[in-house]
Amino acid sequence: MRLANVIDPRTGQVLPVIEPHDGACVPLSEIFASTGGDVPQFAANMKLAVEHLGEIRTALGEWGRRHSRGRLDLAEAPLLPPVVQPGTFRDFYAFEQHVARCRAKRGLAMEPAWYEQPAFYFSNPVALAGHEAPVHAPLGCRELDFELELGLVIGRPGRDIPADRTWDHVAGFTIINDFSARDLQRREMAVGLGPAKGKDFATAVGPCLVTLDEFRDRIDESGKLRLRMAARVNGRELSQGNSASMYFTWPRIIEQASRDAELLPGDLLGSGTVGTGCILELGPENTGGWLVPGDEVELEIERLGVLRTPITARKVETAIEPRA
User: Domains in the chain, please, with CATH?
Assistant: First the structure.
């Protein structure tokens, strides 16, 4: 199943929808109303809905292809992040190639402790942007970067989840663009904390949530998920990678995230940047420079689609000029 949040063009309200086929979408509330029963509360809130995917799947089967009532054209319904304001957003650092290359650019070898357990930071769950929502650099930033990441949404609560049971707690996957203000990040991390203001201004997520059952054939015995990943800026492909190159598997990441902490439905986990998946790693001299107003970033992950983000200017105090 493919689930999304849209802005209902009729009411302006957030509307959880499902895409049963042909790119159309149907409100979850309409799916349940068509069965003749009561519409459950979770049909109006994706953070609640991800814990009831079995019920949604059953209702969708009863709804069937014969119904057209309530269908919306996605082109007319702006997409929001699949989960609006998740309770927590942990962004991991799981791709060895990206970590090694970025450290090498600073004259640093790999830190042996990195291999011992998955590392993450808490990012800003209220600064998420949906598909095609504009993003601008934060105040004082001249080195705006994209980051190509795979995102996972928790579907069932859990604490101290063992690795061999972690898939039971997964709702599905989405695409994450972890926008980064590299110059701000560089200064604040020099004091041994962060990233903070270099990261918390915007993270694009979407375009939808694709449920775990759509990926079962791509998960190997070790727990690695194999999906092709790519990034483009203004139509030029800059990055190619595969989620299977993650050093740490998703079961290991979920096990670490839930150690002595409660994971709740709707919580978002990021994989970290795939190798070659950002300007910092590739070098701005090789990519046409840092992102500037007028640029458009497209992140594509197999079976998840394309997450598109236009870069705009700040409404006040913009020091970066658009490309000539």
Answer: 2-80 (no CATH), 89-310 (3.90.850.10)
